[in-house]
Sequence to fold (234 residues):
Amino acid sequence: MRYPRIIAHRGGGALAPENTLAGLRLAARLGCRGVEFDVMLSADGVPILMHDETLERTTDGSGAVAAQRFAALRTLDAGISHGAAFRGERIPTLEEALALCAALGLWANVEIKPSTGRDAETGAVVGHLLAQQWRGNGIVSSFSMTALTAARQAAPHLAWALLVEDIPPDWRERLAALGGAALHYRADAAAAVVADIPRACYTVNRRDDAEKLFAAGVAAIFTDRPDLWLAAEM
Ligand code: MG
Fold:
C-alpha cells in the first residue's frame, strides 16, 4: 500500500470544520491526495464522523454523542468553528464520507474512534460497512485493538494500521496479531526500532518537521495545515 505524503487531519485539517464533508472538499481543492477522519457510533449505531465523545467543541449541541440518535445529531450545526462560510454543515455519516472520497479520488485513513465501552460494537459496524461500501483506497486504524480486531473480522481484505502515541515494546506482536501493514504514531515518539515497516506520524504542522521525518524514512504525515504544501508536493 502506498501512502500519499501529506494527509489532511480530520478532513481538511484546521482549514475547515473537522470531520465534515466541507473539510474533505477543501482538502481535495488544495491538492491533497489523502485525508484522515474519525468514526464513532450514534446511540442507534450509525457510524458518523466525530472525534470527541461530547458535542460541545465541534457542534451547537451538548452532551454525549453516544446518547443521541442519528436523527437528532443530524439536526446539529457542525460548522460553528469556522465562521459564516461553514454554518449549517451537518455531521456526515461514514457512508457519505466514503462516497465523497471515492468521487474526489481521495485516499482515506478511517480511524475507528469508539466511545467509551463500545469498542467491539463500533469496530464491527465500521468493518461491515467498509466491507460493503468502500471501493476506494486507504487504511483503517484505531487506538483500540478491540475495535480493530472486530473490524478486521468483518473486512479481512482491508489494510490495517496500529495507531499509538509512543511505540510500545511489543509493537511487532501487536501488529502481527492485527495482520497490520503499518504503524501510525506521534511525531515526537522515539522510532529508531521501526525502520522496516511503513510509518505515518501525527500531527505535523511545520514543513521543516515534516522534512526531518521524511528524511528518517517516514512515509506520510498527518497535518492540520495541508495548505503549507503545493499540490505537486503532496
Ligand atoms: Mg483521528
